[in-house]
Amino acid sequence: MTPINRAVCALTLLTAANFGGTSIAIASGPCPARFIKMIVPNPAGGVGDLISRVVAEKASAELGQPVVVENRSGATTVIGTDFVAKSKPDGCTILSLTASGVVVSVLRENLPYKLEHDFAPIIGVGSLPMALAVPVASKLNSFADLGAAAKSKDGITYGSGGTGSLAHLSAVRLIKELHGTGNHIPYRGNSDAIQGLLGNQIQLFFPSTAEALPFAKSGKLRLLGVTSDERLPALPDVPTMKELGFAGFSPRLWFALLAPVDTPPNIVSRLRDGFAKAVIDPSVQERLRAYGFTTEIQNPPAVSAFMKNEAGRWSKLIKEENIKITD
Questions:
Q1: Helix 282-289 vs helix 47-63: angle between axes, to the nearest 10 degrees?
Q2: pTM value?
Q3: CATH 2.30.22.10, applies to 3-128+252-319
Q4: Is the pLDDT of residue 98 over 50?
Q5: What is the mean pLDDT of residues 208-214?
Q6: pLDDT digits (tens, 9 = 90+) for 111-128
Q7: Fewest CB atoms within 10 Å of the CB: 118, 121, 148, 293?
Q8: Which of these CATH numbers, 3.60.40.10, 3.40.50.2300, 3.40.190.10, 3.40.50.300, describes 131-250?
């Protein structure tokens, strides 16, 4: 079991212990059902799952009823996102959205939902930088080695947690800026991609810092760079992409919570207040900062504007590189 999976299991057990034998005052919460269901449209064990569980645990206390994380992965976030879009707009089912969910909305032409029309933003939570990771067993000991491999006859083989994910587009953009070529291997989630990297099946992967840290600390992965503005305290020897000569290369895995459209404004407001208090709680902040997470609380209009800007930012690269989802 990986360190990320162990953390997820621990959080799941802790949540169960907190609510298993406790009578929650349901009437005080924003949802008329027994609990609030937070849908994570990614596989269990990934960073979206981990961050969602950290926040949900504290939000349960703030909202007055359990917030239970449920993974509904598949089709690069589409299955879980569509489930929330079609859920009853009563505050009992919400979506934990990351940047990959917005990218998919640009890549897929016939989605069963539209992010800008079928959801009511609740709150923007914050973001994580990405890490440029290579296998310890590889000959890629420096960024210069990586550049040479990308420009070689065979190019470089890179992985992702799925076509259209932020890790996928980050690698495409980097290889493009290196004037190299790459061969993409999509996995069923970031956890599987990390295992591919550990097994030396791929040469490059862009996990979030939350996913990369345990393996970097244990010496199982080599990190050549991070996309944060400054070096991370937990990784003081790893340069930023800006230091490596790529000042504009700063993809980040951001998080926001959405409800189905037509969710009553008073319920959205209660959810927003509860999650905002949870995110800024000192104990939650301490846990999130350990992964390089930066809290960036955004109100609903700001979340909508951010999603629109994020879609526009990646659409140019998608068109230039003719990236398509074929499944």
A1: 180
A2: 0.83
A3: no
A4: yes
A5: 92
A6: 999 999 999 999 999 999
A7: 148
A8: 3.40.190.10
